[in-house]
């Protein structure tokens, strides 16, 4: 399963149908339709309607790119996460990047690699974002669609710097192509990643495994509470019957003994004289034997008197 999590989209875009059809033909399965906003957020922000003639084999997601220039702005990220499937931040300076890596809640950090970045990437700052589950995105569309030699040179240099600073971890690759001509097949993207310094295995993870983790973690954030409690449909409640079932451990009612059920009641077997004698203690047995001897002696004496 191959993912492209950055395809610019607007409701009046005539090229979007050709782009989506081409993505489906070359093997992509999940595509994120991106809306970019800079400056102050509008009061009612919602993703545009999905294209009607999109291929059925594609899983379409909604994404928002938010350009950050001031670290103190854009405090409505919590409400945006409920409206969009993915929320990506695009910092323009080092302070905004540090704030996005350490404090802000987002799914992706996507930098514009077609321009020269005026600061250096630091491993400590980037690793803090990766530990929080945030991934860094490299978009190759700006360096392919004829933006000029400077844009291509900046893309290669910035991508190599990011890969070196992150040590190849937590990176995804997207197209950001506005037309079908700017899209490349998945294995061509893997070859590009090898040119930038990623291994072939890490390049494949950048468009398969890492992108899948981004979508799965974003869905988990939006449908659960702190990733621990999820709302699951358990079906309808069963109908309450008239006869309530008996509770376990409840005391049974005593059945009165009558002539009708007297024969059905179980009776304990009466012990035999031998069993009764064995159940007595030795002291009781001696006492009873002595009583029997005394009774026998008294009976014989009485017989002698009557005979005389």
Topology record:
Elements (H helix, E strand, L loop, with lengths): L1 E7 L7 H10 L2 E11 L20 E10 L8 H7 L2 E6 L2 H9 L5 E3 L12 H9 L3 E5 L9 H18 L4 E4 L11 H11 L3 H8 L1 H15 E2 L3 E2 L42 H7 L2 H26 L1
Parallel strand pairs: 1-2, 2-3, 3-4, 4-5, 5-6, 6-7
Antiparallel strand pairs: 8-9
Keywords: tRNA processing
InterPro entries: Pol/histidinol_Pase-like (IPR016195), RNase_P_p30 (IPR002738)
Main location: nucleus
Explain this structure to me?
There is one protein chain. This protein has 308 residues and is α/β, with parallel strands linked by helices. It has 2 domains: 2-224, Metal-dependent hydrolases (TIM Barrel); 276-307. Helices cover 39% and strands 16% of the residues. The protein has 10 helices and 9 strands. The strands form 2 sheets. A 7-stranded parallel sheet has the order 1-2-3-4-5-6-7, sandwiched between helices. Strands 8-9 form a two-stranded antiparallel ribbon. Helix 6 (186-196) packs across helix 7. The longest helix is centred in the C-terminal third of the chain and has 26 residues, at 282-307. The model has no long low-confidence stretch (mean pLDDT 81).
């Amino acid at each position: 399963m191959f993912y492209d999590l950055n395809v610019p989209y607007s409701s009046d875009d005539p090229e979007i149908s050709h782009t989506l059809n081409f993505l489906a033909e070359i093997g992509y399965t999940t595509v994120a339709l991106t809306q970019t906003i800079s400056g102050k957020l509008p009061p009612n922000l919602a993703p545009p309607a999905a294209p009607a003639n999109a291929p059925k084999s594609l899983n379409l997601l909604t994404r928002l790119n938010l350009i950050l220039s001031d670290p103190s702005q854009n405090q409505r990220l919590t409400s945006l996460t409920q409206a969009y499937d993915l929320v990506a931040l695009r910092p323009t300076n080092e302070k905004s990047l540090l704030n996005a890596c350490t404090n802000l809640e987002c799914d992706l950090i996507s930098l514009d690699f077609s321009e020269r970045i005026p600061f250096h990437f630091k491993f400590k700052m980037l690793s803090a974002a990766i530990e929080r589950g945030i991934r860094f995105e490299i978009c190759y569309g700006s360096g392919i669609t004829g933006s000029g030699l400077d844009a291509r040179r900046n893309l290669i240099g910035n991508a190599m710097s990011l890969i070196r600073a992150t040590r190849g971890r937590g990176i995804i690759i997207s197209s950001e192509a506005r037309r079908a001509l700017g899209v490349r097949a998945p294995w061509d993207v893997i070859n590009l990643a090898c040119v930038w310094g990623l291994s072939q295995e890490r390049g494949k993870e950048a468009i398969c495994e890492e992108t899948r983790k981004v979508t799965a973690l974003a869905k988990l954030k939006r449908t659960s509470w702190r990733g621990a409690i999820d709302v699951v449909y358990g079906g309808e409640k069963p109908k309450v019957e008239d006869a309530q079932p008996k509770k376990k451990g409840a005391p049974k009612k005593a059945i009165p003994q009558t002539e009708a059920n007297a024969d059905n009641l179980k009776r304990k077997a009466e012990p035999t004289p031998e069993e009764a004698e064995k159940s007595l203690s030795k002291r009781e047995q001696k006492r009873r034997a002595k009583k029997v001897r005394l009774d026998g002696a008294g009976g014989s004496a009485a017989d002698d008197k009557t005979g005389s």
